[in-house]
Structures are given as C-alpha cells and as structure tokens.
Design a protein that fits this description.
The complex is a heterodimer. Chain A has helices spanning 6-29, 34-42, 50-57, 72-76, 83-125, 135-142, 145-160, 172-176, 179-184, 190-219, 225-252, 265-290, 299-330, 333-345, 347-365, 374-400, 409-430, 443-447. By secondary structure, chain A is an all-alpha fold. The radius of gyration of chain A is 23 Å and the shape is globular. In chain A, α6 packs across α17 (409-430). Chain B is an alpha+beta fold. Chain B contains 5 helices and 4 strands; from the N terminus they run βαβαααβαβ. Chain B has helices at 13-25, 42-46, 53-79, 96-122, 154-163, and strands spanning 3-10, 29-34, 143-148, 168-174. Chain B is rod-shaped, with a radius of gyration of 26 Å. The chains are: A mainly alpha, B alpha+beta. The A-B interface holds A 321, 324-325, 328-331, 366-368 and B 54, 58, 85-87, 97-98, 100-101.
Chain lengths: 451, 178
C-alpha cells in the first residue's frame, strides 16, 4: 500500500497556493477600461506583453514574443482616429487573457487524465500482457477526471453563456453580424455546449467508475469474471470515446476560431492527449519506483512506455503536418488565416513546440538503449509535456487574446495551480488500493515481462 | 594448416541453448551454430556482440534526407524554378512543406534498402552464392553446433558434447587450406 508522503502533500499544496495567487493576481491586473489599457501600454517597463498588441496597431507585425522590442517612437505615431477602437479591442484581449490561461491549464491536465483513461481501456480491449503492473498507476491518474472535469464544466458554462468572452460565438452581438456563425449556431450555442459536455463527461466518468470498481473487486476474487466484465465495458467505452473525443475537440478547442474548421482536428487533439498521458504514466511510474514502490516494474516496462512516447510523438507530428500542409498548399483564404495568424503573431511558440514535440523526442528516444535509461525518459517527458502545453496555447490563444499574448503570471499561476491539484489528486488516489493488481489473468506475464 | 572442427547435431532448440551455455562454460570455442529458424536469445547465449545495423540505418537515413534536399532543390528551385502552390517564392525553405513527403520517403527508402544491402554484405550473401551450410538437415529440423577442437583432446570434447544432448557427433578434419 502506498501512503501519501507529507512532503509531497505539502509540495502539491504549495503549488496550488502559489498558483491560486497567480490566477487571482492575473484577474486583478487585467484592465477594467480603456483608460487603464492606455496606461498599461504607456508603461513599457513592466513587460506583460502589451507591447506586441501595440506594434500591431502600427501595421508592424512582429514575431510577438519580445518584451524588449518596445518602440517608444512608433508609439506616439499611432493615429488618433482609430485609437479608441484599438484600445477597446486590446481591452477585450487583455481581459480574456487570465480566462484563457485558466482554460488552457485546466484542459491540459484534464486531457492527460482523459488520455490515460483511453490508454487504460485499450490495455483491456487489447488484452495486453505487458501492462497490468501499471494499471494502478493509470487508475490513479484517471482519478483527476472528477475534480478536473468539474472545473472544466464550470469554465465551459461561464464561457458558453458569455460570462467571459472566451467563445466569440457565444456573444449575441457578434453572431448578429456574422453570417457564418449564424449558420453554425444550431450546434454552437451555450445550451448545446453544456448538454454535450455533460453527456461526454458523464460517459467517461461512468466508464471510469465501473472500470476501477471491477479492478478493485478482482483483487479479492480469483478467476476471470471481473476481467471479462472490464474487457466488455472497455471495448464499449472506446467506441463511445472516439466519437465524443472528436466532438469535444470541436466544441472546446476548435470553436475558438468559429469560422475555421479542420476535419482531422479531433485526431490531432487525440494524438497530443495520448502522448501527454503516456508520458505522465511513465513519469509517475519512475517517481514511484525511485521511492521504492512498484518493484515488479522493470526497465522493459519503461522501455515500452518510451516506445509509445516516441511513436505517438511521431503520430502527432504526422497529423499536425497533414493539417498544415494541405491548408498551406491550397492557400484558401478562409482556411489559411488560421496558420497565417499563428506564424505571424506566434512564431516562436508555433515553431518552438514543433521542435519540442517532434525533433527532441525523435532524436532522444530513437536509440533503443536510451528508452531504458530512466532519467533520459524523464528529461524527454518533461520537454514533451511542456511542448504540448505550448501546442494547446497556440491552439487557444490566437482565438481569444490575439496578439496580446505572453507567458507571464496568469499563465504560470494557472499551470502551477492545476499541477498542484493534479499531483494531490493523483497521489491521493494511489493510496486507495495496492499498487499492483491481483488476479488479472495477465499479471504473471506482466511481472515476467522482458524485452 | 590442419584444424579440427567437431559438428554436434541437436534436434531441439532448448537442448541446443543449454548445450551452448555448457560449452561456453567449459571455454570451448564455438565457431558457428546453424539453425533452421531464428532461435530467440541464441546470440546472447553465444556471446555475440549486439548488432550495429541500426546505426548504419540512421546514417543511411541521413544520406537519403540529404539526397532528397539536394535533388528537390536542383529540380524545383534551381534548374527549372517552379511556382509551388501559387506562391512563387523560389526559395527552398519557404516551399519546404511541399517537399517534406519526398524528404520523408527518400529517408525511409535509403535507410531500408541500404540497410538490407549492408545486411547481405555483412552476412556474405549474394546471388548464386553456394550455401556454407555443412549439413542439409539444418535447413529442415536439426541444429548444428560447430566447435573448434583447437588444442583440446578431441575425444574429450566429443564426449562432453555427447553429454550435452547431441544426437550425432562428427569430427571434421579440414586439411585442405582455404
């Protein structure tokens, strides 16, 4: 049995407190009116990335990442006629920023738990022989679905009913003047969003509840009864999951740019989700092993997880490129704006995350021996997780804050808060049951697993 | 120079594996083992070094990548500049997304084909090559271990091999030099 060490508990709580302070200060520092925006733009020193929105008004499209690229001279040259409109625009962007930061961090950790649930279901459906020693780790990670899902639902409710401005399609004024969104409003509306979110999350949590229940029950009862039940619900869940995950990605991410659409977006989000989930499983497993738990997990299991990290990183890149190349090649204005915005205003994160999510794992994990070196897997894993956070950032931010982006206190605060919550929930859940399952028909094979 | 090789024939891969282990423990030198199918773990048991073909594959991949870049740059940019996707930039890097599939395919093509050729050369295999196989039964259901008799007493080695479960022991005198 694993017990939650007080140090780890304290570690998680400290992260949550620091994160909460960051989130609150993000909301407090957001400007309330255009006068404050003007003031913020005038003071270049505090470096909250306002300068970037500023340069845009001068018709000067910058890479958009430099706080030091302040052009005081150009600042004064802003035309007076459109200044107020521009300030109004920037105000909305800056007010959206803490909400977006919260949304991204919340979804990031939620998708780790969700990807882990799908991975867990695949193990049962495929009757995998290598992985049963990792089942409890996966069950622990999926425990985050409950608190993460509740926060996600609240955020979706706030955005879907236009209590914040995250979803443009939720703003009745915008929709009134927008033929394209009007055409989609049958799907894109607050009520529909919440009904769908409830169905998706309900289904996922239902599967999680029964899968964990069956797994615990089989600890006390020999035979394959519970395994067969798990197999059946896992197969069913995977069918449900692949449809709902796809729709979830349209609702929760793609609708930030409601004019734009991509038919492989669901797969793309799924690939990112799986890499993060498998990386997290590897990190938690290596952590527990380093503390003397999970003795039955050997290097061959870590090797397999690293293979999945490697493989899904390439799969993610394949989907990213498939989406990018077709749109880039065809160059149809309504499609290509998606990438034009990102390359012009988000150049560093846009290309940086490609290096982090593709080049880095491919080069580091290509060698078979390196996949067994635990610290190598940890190092690559951290870069992969950071890379996919930035990937999510680049998916969401252009639609909500436009060029007024910056990774500062609101973003880091939200990350810290959800990280602390994630660690707390996952490791508390790990204490609930023995770390290795019993009576799974494949447990012996898994314990003796050798590459 | 005369050298003596003992051919021990087995009819089971498990017995063969144990025999290899025992023979190595006695510090006799195993020249080669002929099997009708790949026996998992035999290379490790024989103490063979791990293969380096993956490293050659990586290098061939890099060669393929370079070839594709140089080739596409010559064909599409320099020799006959193309307007790709309605964006006449005539720069390789700006048109790179269009070239990525070719870059990928040639990387894989070079890595795969050259790796196979390397494997053939390293294993000394080529068309019309005469089989080195000392006994045709090793292509059917028998396993053959060739042990170098060296300075050992041949009778002693043969007795030892018989005890490891060999069904047949032959002493081969290779007088002719090759």
């Amino acid at each position: 049995m694993y017990t939650l060490p007080n140090k780890l508990k304290l570690f998680a709580i400290i992260f949550m407190v620091i994160g909460a302070i960051g989130i609150v200060s993000g909301f407090l520092n957001a400007p309330a009116n255009t006068a404050e925006v003007k003031e913020m733009l005038a003071s270049h020193g505090d470096g909250h990335g306002n300068e970037t929105s500023h340069e845009e008004s001068n018709g000067h499209v910058d890479e958009g990442h430099g706080e030091e690229t302040a052009h005081a001279g150009e600042h004064e040259a802003v035309g007076h006629g459109d200044e107020e409109a521009h300030l109004e625009h920037t105000l909305h962007q800056l007010q959206n920023r803490p909400w977006s930061a919260l949304y991204i961090a919340c979804f990031f950790f939620f998708m780790i738990a969700l990807g882990c649930l799908a991975f867990y279901a695949i193990q049962f459906a495929a009757q995998a022989g290598w992985s049963p020693v990792l089942f409890r780790v996966m069950e622990g990670i999926t425990a985050y679905l409950v608190p993460g899902g509740i926060i996600m639902f609240v955020l979706l409710a706030l955005s879907g009913f236009h209590l914040n401005h995250l979803f443009v399609w939720a703003d009745p004024e915008v929709v009134a003047h927008d033929k394209l969104i009007q055409g989609k409003s049958g799907w894109l509306n607050g009520t529909g969003l919440l009904i769908r979110a409830a169905i998706f999350m309900g289904g996922w949590l239902l599967y999680r509840h029964f899968a964990v229940k069956f797994s615990r029950k089989s600890d006390n009862e020999a035979g394959t009864t519970w395994f067969k039940k798990s197999f059946r619900i896992s197969a069913g869940f995977l069918v449900f999951f692949i449809y709902t995950e796809s729709m979830m990605s349209w609702d929760w991410l793609m609708s930030f740019d409601p004019h734009w659409f991509s038919t492989l977006y669901g797969w793309y989000v799924f690939a990112g989700m799986m890499v993060c989930a498998i990386t997290t499983i590897a990190l938690v497993t290596i952590y527990l092993k380093s503390k003397g738990y999970l003795e039955v997990v050997n290097d061959s299991h870590i090797h397999d997880l690293a293979k999945f990290m490697f493989g899904f990183s390439i799969f993610w890149t394949y989907l990213w490129f498939s989406q990018f190349m077709l749109i880039w090649y065809a160059n149809i204005p309504e499609e290509v704006t998606y990438f034009v915005t990102r390359i012009e205003q988000y150049k560093l994160p846009f290309f940086g995350m490609l290096a982090m999510n593709f080049l880095f794992p491919v080069l580091l994990l290509m060698n078979s021996d390196y996949k067994r070196v635990n610290w190598f897997v940890v190092l690559t894993g951290i870069v992969i997780l950071a890379g996919h956070y930035i990937d999510l950032f680049v998916m969401v931010m252009p639609g909500t804050v436009g060029s007024s982006w910056y990774i500062g206190i609101p973003e880091l605060g939200a990350m810290c808060f959800f990280f602390g919550l994630f660690v707390y929930v996952v490791f508390s859940a790990l204490t609930k049951a023995p770390l290795v399952v019993k009576n799974n028909p494949f447990i012996k094979e898994s314990k003796q697993y050798h590459y | 120079m005369a050298s003596k090789v003992i051919h021990a024939i087995y009819n089971d891969d498990d017995i063969l594996m144990h025999a290899v282990k025992d023979v190595r423990a006695e510090r006799y030198h195993i020249e080669e083992v002929y099997t009708p199918f790949p026996v998992h773990g035999l290379d490790k048991m024989m103490g063979l070094e791990p293969t380096r073909i993956a490293i050659t594959s990586f290098m061939y991949g890099l060669v393929g990548l370079t070839v594709s870049i140089v080739m596409m740059n010559f064909i599409m940019i320099e020799d006959w500049p193309q307007d790709i996707g309605g964006k006449p930039s005539f720069s390789y890097i700006e048109n790179m997304p269009a070239f990525v599939p070719i870059m990928f395919e040639l990387t894989v093509f070079f890595a795969a084909h050259l790796m196979v050729l390397t494997f053939y050369m390293r294993s000394k295999l080529w068309p019309f090559k005469k089989a080195e196989n000392p006994d045709v039964r090793t292509t059917d259901d028998h396993f053959l271990m060739a042990v170098d008799a060296g300075h050992h007493d041949t009778d002693e080695v043969m007795d030892f091999l018989r005890n490891t479960g060999a069904i047949e022991i032959n002493l081969i005198d290779t007088d002719e030099d090759h």
